[in-house]
Amino acid sequence: MLEHGGRLHLASQRYGIALGDWIDLSTGIAPWPYPVPEIPLSTWQRLPEDDDGLIDAAQNYYGAANLLPLNGSQAAILALPRLRAPGAVAVLAPSYGEYAPAWQAAGHRVIECAAEDLLQQGGDAADVIMLANPNNPDGRCFSRAVLLALARRLSERHGWLIVDEAFADIDSENSLADIAGMAGAENVIILRSLGKFFGLAGARVGFCIAALDALSRLKEVLGPWPLAHPARFVAKVGLGDTAWQAAQRQLLHDASERLATLLIANGLPPNGSTALFQYVQCKEAAGLYEHFAQHGILVRYFAEPAALRFGLPENETAWVRLATALENCAKK
Ligand SMILES: Cc1ncc(COP(=O)(O)O)c(C=O)c1O
């Protein structure tokens, strides 16, 4: 079992602090979810149909022609390795922990690489390269130009470049969503999620953007109705709500800057970030994780390299509690 953020029930049992007393900063999920509208009863009763407007809304939002709705981007992370004969797969490390096991389970040889090595492997050894852009947990960004050059090198041996853009909604400057699967980027596959920016991780909505043949094979593996009808409805409305998106972008941006300032003021300067989290490498990370947990604040701990990732506090109460816990650890 991989450890993920957001495991409040477990934290509550482990530290003996009531569930409602926690501040959960352990994920990169926006603390202010999309205000889901009333869901028509018919969506619970009827099977979803492809022409319900979701595809149009997603094409518009991502600027992408060919996409497939998924039960979270996790569905594609698990299914894509089954679409290729076993080969060598270079996976960015550190990064989201689900990639390597998914490829290994489908019989591929996984090479976990730091960013610089990954760019090199693209030219030399790998049939597939998989990375997150921006990366989770360290916020590292790869430019469009670097990624397209990598994709071209991979295409010489029919390789894929898979870019997980779960955190790309706020700043999409380096996104390849508009070009993946199209001329010049036929072998680029993009994963998107409504879990982070829209704060709808529980709805399990994601998309794969790729060339039509890859999407039809993926569709075959996933089977009919990969996405529940109520989730499709909510996703369609959220993807079309540009006013809410603009306000959310600003809120997240401001909160992330405020978080960086608070961490710096307390001797924990971030080494990387996105608008949804700040990443702090420090050798005391394990002890600090315990310290925050004892204050009822759940952060995400990474062992290698030793680091903490802080998500955004939801409200002023949470900001004050985080500031107090930070001051207390500075005094220790
Ligand atoms: C980089 C990255 N990709 C994908 C996922 C999974 O997203 P989804 O909820 O769409 O399955 C996560 C969740 O933490 C993530 O951090």
Gist of the model:
The protein has 332 residues and is α/β, with parallel strands linked by helices. The chain has helices spanning 8-15, 41-45, 54-62, 73-79, 99-105, 115-124, 144-155, 212-222, 229-240, 242-265, 285-294, 316-331; strands at residues 23-24, 67-70, 88-92, 109-113, 128-132, 160-164, 188-193, 206-209, 272-274, 277-281, 297-298, 300-302, 307-311.
Structure, described:
With about 325 residues, the chain is α/β, with parallel strands linked by helices. It folds into two domains: about 10-35 and about 245-330, Aspartate Aminotransferase, domain 1 (Alpha-Beta Complex), CATH 3.90.1150.10; about 40-240, Aspartate Aminotransferase, domain 2. It has twelve helices and 13 strands. It has helices at about 10-15, 40-45, 55-60, 75-80, 100-105, 115-125, 145-155, 210-220, 230-240, 240-265, 285-295, 315-330, and strands spanning about 25, 65-70, 90, 110-115, 130, 160-165, 190-195, 205-210, 270-275, 275-280, 295-300, 300, 305-310. The strands form three sheets. It has a seven-stranded mixed beta sheet with strand order 2-8-7-6-5-3-4, with helices on both faces. Strands 9-10-13-12 form a four-stranded antiparallel beta sheet, covered by helices on one side. Helix 3 (about 55-60) crosses helix 9 (about 230-240). The radius of gyration is 20 Å and the shape is globular. The model has no long low-confidence stretch (mean pLDDT about 95). Pyridoxal-5'-phosphate binds near residues 28, 73 and 206.
